[in-house]
Design goal:
Layout (H helix, E strand, L loop, with lengths): L7 H11 L17 H4 L8 E5 L9 H16 L3 E5 L7 H16 L17 H12 L2 H14 L4 H22 L5 E5 L15 H6 L5 H6 L3 E8 L5 E8 L4 H14 L6
Parallel strand pairs: 1-2, 1-3
Antiparallel strand pairs: 3-5, 4-5
Length: 269
């Protein structure tokens, strides 16, 4: 679950509204509710920010690299301590994510048959109703993930793909846990490239997937993260900075992101 907002503080307001235990949702955690907006701190002195060199070897554009380095220098000059961390298997998070998310999509979307859940398109009989409902109720990307999910969960490939992806997920969780023993926040780019034109890469879904290389690890291991603008390239296209925190440490995450948003000026560290 995530929100798209104009500012970090707006995101804090939204998180305060949606966070909390739901007795009808067995994946939600029983934790005390927090007013995230009032919990934001305007101080990063002594904060430890982890930088993993592995993130910088994943096809990052030069414009992105320069702006991320500027953000790192900003935090350093404002009292944060930079810590080298290692995430040697971070490059595997992309295939792991698409195996697991596709498997989850195929199983969870099975209920959307047009009878009890989802869009319903009538047919001449029950089978045709199923067919019409799923044809018109799902977009191309959803259909693609359902097909991929059915493949990786099938009897001949379950061990080769799904179980192996789960094993790598466990490895990534362990690597992040070790990294967070020496830092409070992990800093990465949001994407290896600048924003592209609307519809420019939709015909090549592999290239679209590759743009997720920095963010999917968060989804795989279930830690909170936020993306904030940190600059532009030479023709004015935006570049994003991603900050990652420990489980349930959204207060630190929002504080660090808000400090950057309110105090960082491009070209002025």
């Amino acid at each position: 679950m995530g929100t798209l907002t104009r500012t970090v503080k707006d995101s804090a307001v939204m998180l305060s509204a949606i966070a909390g235990y739901d007795e009808k949702e067995n994946t939600s955690a029983k934790r005390e509710k927090i007013d995230y907006l009032n919990a934001i701190k305007d101080n990063i002195k002594g904060l430890k920010i982890g930088i993993a060199k592995e993130f910088f070897g994943l096809g990052m554009d030069e414009d992105v690299k320069q702006n991320i380095e500027n953000a790192i220098e900003f935090y350093k000059q404002n009292g944060a301590k930079l810590v080298d961390i290692h995430l040697p298997n971070i490059g595997d998070s992309l295939p792991v994510y698409y195996v697991l998310s596709s498997a989850e999509a195929s199983s969870n979307l099975g209920r959307f048959d047009g009878i009890r859940f989802g869009k319903r398109e009538e047919g001449k009989d029950l089978i045709q109703t199923y067919f019409n409902s799923r044809t018109k109720g799902f977009g191309k990307e959803v259909k693609r993930r359902i097909m991929l999910g059915n493949f990786v969960l099938s009897s001949g490939y379950h061990d080769a793909y799904y179980k192996k992806a789960e094993a790598v997920r466990a490895l990534l969780k362990q690597e992040f846990a070790v990294a967070f023993e020496s830092c409070d926040i992990i800093l990465t780019p949001t994407s290896p490239s600048v924003a592209f034109k609307l519809g420019e890469k939709t015909s090549d879904h592999i290239k679209m997937y590759l743009n997720d290389i920095y963010t999917v690890a968060v989804n795989v291991i279930g830690v909170p993260a936020i993306s904030v603008p940190c600059g532009e390239n030479q023709i004015g296209l935006p570049i994003g900075l991603q900050l990652i925190a420990k489980h349930f440490d959204e207060v630190t995450l929002l504080s660090v992101a808000n400090y950057f948003e309110e105090h960082f000026k491009e070209g002025k560290l």
